[in-house]
Design a protein that fits this description.
Metallo-beta-lactamase, Chain A, binds zinc ion
């Protein structure tokens, strides 16, 4: 399995210094939407989808004015997962499965670019995004992004465990949801086997690389505040962030943990490489 790391939506909020970057209070910082393109023998699997084509075309309707004002997204069609998999030499139909960490607007905008793909989601998260029971949930889960009717495949915990966490296998032994509630009701990390180790896409379980330092963790002040403000359950979020730090401390040689929005973590991975120009097509699955 080859895994590509791509940014599907650069966001530039004001206050670079508060986001842990260089620059002053009034300069814009940079956050990414770190997504994975996993090449499997049956096609492509995406982990998170960032912003999609329709978000670029109709940002106000799809993303809402508050999100646009606060995060300052660049809204580039070239950054959508669709545009990037095409640059890698694949087609829309090659994407068979999508595994979002959670269903916030900056993680699922690309779903509508792949309407035929199965979308594997932790059942409590799907329920939260469908019911939209609180005011905050009505603004974070955008009905406009789901209107095409994603092919949801809900998953529940069934007693399986992995390195001290619950684990929900979604695609054989190689891709699993790891529930880490707090940011949202059903927020998960997604663990992807990558050779001898595991990539752990921690979604929004933390926002800044310093938060994962096992000794003396440090968060950028603006991002720490933001996480507290938008958490569905801040106590659960902190507890799960602690568990994630322990995973890094105790199993650092077996896992590589990264979050959705830290640009430095993303850029530590090699840039995506187009596949060699041989025309292989995937056999359609039954
Ligand atoms: Zn996010």
């Amino acid at each position: 399995m080859r895994v590509h790391h791509i940014d599907c939506g650069t966001m530039c909020p004001l206050g670079a210094r508060l986001l842990g970057g260089r620059g002053g209070w009034l300069e814009r910082g940079r956050l990414v939407c770190h997504c994975l393109v996993v090449e499997t023998k049956d096609g492509l699997t995406l982990v998170d989808t960032g912003l999609g084509t329709a978000d670029i075309d109709q940002p106000r309707r799809r993303l809402g004015g508050v999100f646009l004002a606060v995060t300052g997204p660049r809204l580039l069609r070239d950054q959508t997962a669709l545009a990037q998999i095409e640059r890698l030499g694949y087609r829309r139909d090659d994407v068979r499965d999508i595994v979002p960490t959670h269903l916030d607007l900056d993680h699922v905008g690309g779903l509508s670019d792949f309407p035929e793909a199965r979308v594997h989601v932790f059942e409590p998260e799907l329920r939260a995004a469908t019911e939209r029971a609180t005011r905050r949930e009505r603004s974070r889960y955008r009905a406009a992004q789901m209107r095409h009717g994603p092919r949801w495949v809900p998953h529940r915990v069934e007693g399986d465990t992995w390195m001290g966490f619950e684990r929900v296998r979604v695609l054989g032994d190689d891709v699993a949801l790891v529930p880490l509630a707090g940011h949202t009701r059903g927020h998960c990390a997604v663990a992807v086997r990558d050779g001898a180790r595991w990539l752990v896409h921690a979604g929004d379980a933390y926002f800044f690389r310093g938060e994962m330092r096992p000794e003396a963790p440090w968060g950028a002040p603006g991002l720490s505040l933001l996480q507290r403000l938008i958490a569905f359950d801040d106590e659960a979020r902190r507890r799960n962030q602690d568990r994630l730090r322990s995973l890094v401390r105790d199993h650092g040689d077996e896992v590589r943990v990264f979050c959705a929005h830290d640009p430095v973590e993303l850029e530590a991975f090699p840039a995506p490489e187009p596949r060699p120009a041989v025309t292989t097509t995937f056999v359609a699955s039954a």
